[in-house]
Amino acid sequence: MYSDMSEKKQKHAICFFGTYESTFPRTITLKEACRQLNIKIIECNVPFWELKREKLEFFSLQSMIRIFFQLTFIYIRLALRYIDSENHDAVIVGYNGYFDMPIARLLTKIRKKPLIYTPVFPLYETSVEDRKYVNKTSIKSKAIHLVDEISCRLADLIIIETENYLNYYCQEFNIPREKYFKIPLGADESNYTPRLQEAQNLDSNQLRVLFYGKFIPLQGIPYIVEAAKLLENKREIQFEIIGSGQLSENIRNMARKLNIKNASFIEWVNYGKLPKHIQKADVCLGIFGTTHKAQRGIPIKVYESLAMKKPVITGDSPAAREVFTHKVNSILCEMGNPKAIAESILLLKNDKKLRENIAEAGFRLYQDLFSSKQIATEFEHALDKISD
Asked: Are residues 246 and 143 in the same domain?
């Protein structure tokens, strides 16, 4: 069905359906894959989740009732828009589309179209296992688990990021392995590409270490702050920590208690301005948390840093070992270990050649496995799978 997509004449169309976050990398990279494959993109989206920076509010009873009614009206709008949409070959429900799947399945059944689900990670894993918003033994926890399971069962194809996540989904929700297809998240290459280093950053004595992301358990930010404390006597090493979220107050209190002087904290940076901060960094940090979720995925910041040809230090997780080789295309260090993070930073500080080699090899790895071209190739194979 899709083998002739490389032809110049456009013959296919895919509908992106639901309340998905249009600025999330999975959405951006799959849309770019469609463009490279000459597939027309039909937007059937009503923004909802991307308007809510912190999702914690969802888990209070009052908010759940309010959100239920909001989504009901949104789904009526989406249904009318979808019914009126032009012909297409498949429908994609993107992240955060956990609750979009039942209405999407109903509508695709009516029009006899295959349904692709791209959850990135389960709602249960995030809310119950990682952030612990919900008690694991509660009825609410079981309801969230059921939402994930039903969403997966309704899909014809589920796109997952890593082999570890694929195995987790199969075991946790008892969904046949053949229903899954692995495609990396990648990066928005319209923003994240190698750039010339600014002149003031070329002082070989200075080492700028960058972390950015949500302040949640997955990231392991307390270990980064402790690593900064261990390196406080190395005044040429400076940390920049960007983000906010669930643990913001705890992290800032910790930094004050430890009297951290070699790290600057920025509450948030607009997505479009993040590349400037990566450009100025000499080393970029991934994740170091000790939760199960931290073991299963590769964080978006790692893809983005690799795409900008920056050396990356991240946790030595099973997911990271799927693609990375220590001291070749990244530095992998023990999760949850501030001393290991500090030693990894010192290693790159004291060996500029190693730093340059890792940056170059990491960029080549990105081009080979995670680039938009490679994602388009994998996405074409996924579409062939549902057309068989």
From this structure: no
Q: Are residues 353 and 378 in the same domain?
A: no
Q: Is the CB of residue 215 less than 8 Å from the CB of residue 251?
A: yes
* DSSP state string for 227-284: HHHHTTT-TTEEEEEE--STTHHHHHHHHHHTT--SEEEES---GGGHHHHHHH-SEE
Torsion, CA 369, CA 375, CA 381, CA 385, rounded to 10: 110
Match 């090493």 to its residue by tokens.
Answer: 237
pLDDT for 18: 96
Are 173 and 214 found together in one domain? no
Structural domain count, the chain: 2
Q: Can you tell me whether residue 298 is helix, strand or coil?
A: coil
385 three-class SS: helix
What SS3 class is residue 375?
helix
In this structure, the answer to whether residues 17 and 162 fall within a common structural domain is: yes
Task: Classify residue 80 as exposed, middle or buried by CB count within 10 Å of its CB (0-12, 13-18, 19+).
Answer: exposed
Convert the pLDDT of each residue in 85-119 to its tens digit. 999 999 999 998 999 999 999 999 999 999 999 99
Distance from C-alpha of 127 to C-alpha of 377, rounded to nearest angstrom: 33
Greatest Cα pair distance, the chain, in angstroms, is 66
The pLDDT assigned to 171 comes to 93
Report residues of the chain scoring pLDDT below 50. 5-9, 199-200
The residue assigned the tokens 């429900």 is: 93
Number of H helices, E strands in the chain: 15, 12
Q: How far apart are the first and last CA of the chain?
A: 8
Write the CA distances from 112 to 41, 77, 154, 210, 323, integer angstroms.
18, 20, 14, 48, 37
CATH code for position 235: 3.40.50.2000
With both helix axes pointing from N to C terminus, report the angle between 163-173 and 139-154 in degrees, rounded to the nearest 10: 110
Whether residue 158 is found in the same domain as residue 246: no
**113-166 pLDDT per residue, tens:** 999 999 999 999 988 888 888 888 989 889 999 999 999 999 999 999 999 999
Tell me, yes or no, whether 265 and 281 share the same domain.
yes
Token pair for residue 205? 């004595």
Looking only at the bridges linking them, the beta strands covering 180-182 and 157-160 are parallel
